[in-house]
Amino acid sequence: MKTSKRTFLKSLLAVSILAISGLHSGFTYAKSTDNLKLGFLVKQPEEPWFQTEWRFADKAAQDLGDVEIIKIAVPDGEKTLNAIDNLAANGAKGFVICTPNPKLGPAIMQKLDLMI
Fold first, then answer.
1. Which of the chain's termini has less CB crowding within 10 Å, N or C?
2. What's domain 36-113's architecture?
3. Where are the beta strands (DSSP E) in 16-83?
4. By three-state DSSP, how is residue 48 classified?
């Protein structure tokens, strides 16, 4: 069965939200004026593929309601780690990432652990 990109991204966003809420025992989110903030970091924002991913993420956030997608370009490792710090400082509860370097995986996971 083929899954469309839109369905896949909506599912990914929903799973991310559920995973984040399940991983953080102190996490409470009630309907209010506060939006759930999620980062979406990509290595090449000028590429049509990533523009499409961002567009579908925005649509999924709109469909879910009270979710804000923070889109950031991260062309190198230093900017990637700084962007994650900025997301945490701005109250983001998690992120989706297409890392510019897979070797950043442990550092990214360490930053995520500090975020949630």
1. N
2. 3-Layer(aba) Sandwich (3.40)
3. 36-42, 67-73
4. helix
Please write the tens of the pLDDT for every residue from 72-98: 999 999 999 999 999 999 999 999 999
Low-confidence ranges of the chain (pLDDT < 70): 1-3, 5-6, 8-33
- 2 Cβ contact list (under 8 Å, min separation 6): none
Task: Look up the pTM and report it.
Answer: 0.70
pLDDT of residue 35: 87
- Map out the domains of the chain as residue ranges: 36-113
Distance of CA 38 to the CA centre of its chain: 4
The two tokens of residue 24 are 């953080």
* Cα distances (Å, whole numbers) of residue 104 to 65, 69, 97: 32, 22, 11
